[in-house]
Amino acid sequence: APAAPSGGAPPAGPATLEARDITAWFGSHQVLDRVSLTMPASGITALIGPSGCGKSTFLRILNRMHELVPSAALAGEVLLDGDDIYDPQRKLTDARRAIGMVFQKPNPFPAMSIRENVVAGLRLTGTRLGRSAKEELVEECLVRGGLWNEVKDRLDSPGGGLSGGQQQRLCIARSLAIKPRVLLMDEPCSALDPTSTRVIEETMKDLARQVTIVIVTHNMQQAARVSDTCAFFLASQGTPGVIVEHGDTEAMFSSPRDQRTSDYVNGRFG
Ligand SMILES: Nc1ncnc2c1ncn2[C@@H]1O[C@H](COP(=O)(O)OP(=O)(O)OP(=O)(O)O)[C@@H](O)[C@H]1O
């Protein structure tokens, strides 16, 4: 298990995330219909499916970002190791802290140093660290994010000076600094070249033992390479998105049970 930062949050290992009967709307437009999915602790779950079928909406529901959209509404439950993250007794920030997010476009604070980028999230969670604890945390997170060797001699340089792939790994390191139990990744490699993509995929595999990962990807090869389990979303002809099939990734790619899954993973549509 990863060490807790001294003076920081208590250690919290990877958690199972379970979505139950998730239905979602933007205004009167229903985009998901009773979607249920268990994302096992320490595993990598890939969400795949054609554009517009609700994968990103589903992902954003998993850490309460959906509700940031004024017209958005939601029914169903999301359980983090059995605890409902939408329980009115629980603070919104608890859910966002336990369930981190990495976006499509790397978004480090460009003028802030690499070191300060890594610890930028701590302020939001009210964590105060002494100088040496902070240094340890910066190194630990950059190592886990697969970036340490490339930046250890220039931690005071601006985050904006890194390559796109390095910036994305910096964002991963920044997410890890607040010790999430789940890391959500919304097409994290779509803005990156193939080499940087492979480095991120390796980083994800290294992280999987320490944090549960859920990734949205359009790249079938990527889903096959990195994920343990996979869920295929589909919204046919203006109907809300549903999960057509989910399960073990290898089985879904080699012998899908549903013809629509077979067509999609073999590139026949979407
Ligand atoms: N902020 C929003 N306001 C209104 N409608 C939205 C909003 N975000 C998404 N939608 C709609 O919800 C549906 C699902 O979108 P979503 O982005 O979740 O799909 P997706 O499967 O992630 O697509 P993509 O793969 O293209 O990112 C689409 O019809 C989209 O137009």
From TrEMBL:
Q: Which GO terms describe its molecular function?
A: ATP binding
* Keywords of the record: ATP-binding, Nucleotide-binding, Signal, Translocase, Transport
CDD domains per record: ABC_PstB_phosphate_transporter (cd03260)
Can the keyword Glycoprotein be found in this entry's annotation?
A: no
**Any transmembrane segments, and where?**
none
**Locate the ABC transporter domain: which residues?**
17-265
- Please give the InterPro entries that the UniProt record associates with this protein: AAA+_ATPase (IPR003593), ABC_transporter-like_ATP-bd (IPR003439), ABC_transporter-like_CS (IPR017871), P-loop_NTPase (IPR027417), PstB-like (IPR005670)
Among its keywords, does the record have Cytoplasm? Answer: no
Point out the coiled-coil segments of this chain: none
**Name of the featured protein:** Phosphate ABC transporter ATP-binding protein
Organism field: Nocardioides renjunii
